[in-house]
């Protein structure tokens, strides 16, 4: 038995949570939640206290994303995975084109493909670590892609395919709040709030364009079978009243509202995106400078500023992650199905760039000890 490796205190980040999701929830948000205590938790979601928290979150997101005219913040229960089905039932008319270059993009593509009421989608694929791109296709009424593929750390720009009448859907579960976006380039910017937004799980949030709302209303009126839980029209109607169709994860709403308010106070999306770029940039340049580490995403233009994936050579990354965990630095393991000798480091807005810098020093220390 070798002695356990103890990382010196001066190399330890102040907060050791680097998971890509669920991700670090700031201590201030936790205090605010406990301060709200009995007035919100354990009370009816149909009464003012909870509805005003939903309203605070919706308004805060509107400010944060500079909501274009007619766009609306809609939310419901079930996370991004539930929203895939919401979109399958309520946004895709018949034929979709979906980009698949990692676990999450591929899951949504599959949900579309197996839906019995939809036509055969076109799925454009690319190897993990690269990106697949959407392009004009006759007969397609919805285009879908992740903004940031959380499983691989690849980010693409949010950009419309020039196709009159077709909707653009962007999965921003890890991108939201950390990567720049112009919402006029999309019709549906959706996410679960436990990744980029530093909240807990259980909800989906979708920012919808007027065209997406119109589509949802038209499909809802078409007679298509839509399970009530996945009915986007119902979610839109409830969201307009600062409610959800069924009981929401109230703490998740409060924590998300806290984070959005904090980000707005700190300079909004531009400032948050800059912070993430700085944080991730430090990780990538550190890896570039080390003989034992390399950014997994070889094209620098595709490297995510919110999820940095680093391949290791000559040293077992799983062993590094284990030592880090024993020292209170958690969730740096790579996406389980990717199967690479890799660490995955979230650099969301909630993560302090000085902590990211400390993390790289801690890894250097561990690698030297293991070597
Ligand atoms: C985590 C993740 C999801 C799934 O989110 P859930 O809330 O667990 O359903 C979907 N898409 C992306 C890009 C993700 O990172």
TrEMBL record:
Query: Which pathway?
Result: Amino-acid biosynthesis; L-serine biosynthesis; L-serine from 3-phospho-D-glycerate: step 2/3
The domain of life is Bacteria
The answer to whether keyword Magnesium applies is no
Which GO BP terms apply?
Answer: glycine biosynthetic process, by transamination of glyoxylate; L-serine biosynthetic process; pyridoxine biosynthetic process
Task: Name the catalysed reactions.
Answer: 4-(phosphooxy)-L-threonine + 2-oxoglutarate = (R)-3-hydroxy-2-oxo-4-phosphooxybutanoate + L-glutamate; O-phospho-L-serine + 2-oxoglutarate = 3-phosphooxypyruvate + L-glutamate
One Pfam entry for this protein is: Aminotran_5
EC id = 2.6.1.52
List the keywords (alphabetical). Answer: Amino-acid biosynthesis, Aminotransferase, Cytoplasm, Pyridoxal phosphate, Pyridoxine biosynthesis, Serine biosynthesis, Transferase
Query: What does this protein need as cofactor?
Result: pyridoxal 5'-phosphate
> SUPFAM superfamilies attached here?
PLP-dependent transferases (SSF53383)
What biological function has been recorded for the protein in this entry? Catalyzes the reversible conversion of 3-phosphohydroxypyruvate to phosphoserine and of 3-hydroxy-2-oxo-4-phosphonooxybutanoate to phosphohydroxythreonine.
Q: What protein family does this chain belong to?
A: Belongs to the class-V pyridoxal-phosphate-dependent aminotransferase family. SerC subfamily.
Name this polypeptide is given: phosphoserine transaminase
Its lineage reads: Bacteria, Bacillati, Actinomycetota, Actinomycetes, Glycomycetales
């Amino acid at each position: 038995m070798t002695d356990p490796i103890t990382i010196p205190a001066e190399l330890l980040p102040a907060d050791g949570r680097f998971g890509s999701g669920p991700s670090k929830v700031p201590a201030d948000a936790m205090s605010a939640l406990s301060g709200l205590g009995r007035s919100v938790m354990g009370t009816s979601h149909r009464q003012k206290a909870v509805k005003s928290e939903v309203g605070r979150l919706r308004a805060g997101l509107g400010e944060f994303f500079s909501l274009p005219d007619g766009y609306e913040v809609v939310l419901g229960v079930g996370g991004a995975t539930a929203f895939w089905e919401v979109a399958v039932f309520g946004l895709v008319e018949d034929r979709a084109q979906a980009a698949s270059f990692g676990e999450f993009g591929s899951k949504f593509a599959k949900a579309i493909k197996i839906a019995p009421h939809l036509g055969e989608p076109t799925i454009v694929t690319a190897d993990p670590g690269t990106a697949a791109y959407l392009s004009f296709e006759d007969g397609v009424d919805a285009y879908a892609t992740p903004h940031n593929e959380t499983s691989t750390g690849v980010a693409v720009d949010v950009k419309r395919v020039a196709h009159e009448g077709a909707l653009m859907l962007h999965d921003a579960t890890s991108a939201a709040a950390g990567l720049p976006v112009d919402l006029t380039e999309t019709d549906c910017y959706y996410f679960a709030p436990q990744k980029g937004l530093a909240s807990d799980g259980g909800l989906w949030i979708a920012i919808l364009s007027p065209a997406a709302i119109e589509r949802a209303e038209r499909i809802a009126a078409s007679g298509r079978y839509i399970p009530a839980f996945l009915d986007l029209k119902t979610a839109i109607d409830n969201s307009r009243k600062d409610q959800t169709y069924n009981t929401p994860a109230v703490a998740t709403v409060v924590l998300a509202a806290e984070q959005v308010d904090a980000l707005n106070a700190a300079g909004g999306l531009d400032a948050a995106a800059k912070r993430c770029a700085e944080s991730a940039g430090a990780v990538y340049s550190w890896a570039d400078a080390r003989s034992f580490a390399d950014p997994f995403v070889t094209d620098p233009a595709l490297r995510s500023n919110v999820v940095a994936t680093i391949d290791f050579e000559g040293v077992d990354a799983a062993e590094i992650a284990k030592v880090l965990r024993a020292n209170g630095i958690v969730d740096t393991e790579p996406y389980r199905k990717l199967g690479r000798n890799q660490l995955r480091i979230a650099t969301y807005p909630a993560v302090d760039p000085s902590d990211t810098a400390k993390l790289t020093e801690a890894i250097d220390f561990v690698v030297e000890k293991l070597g």
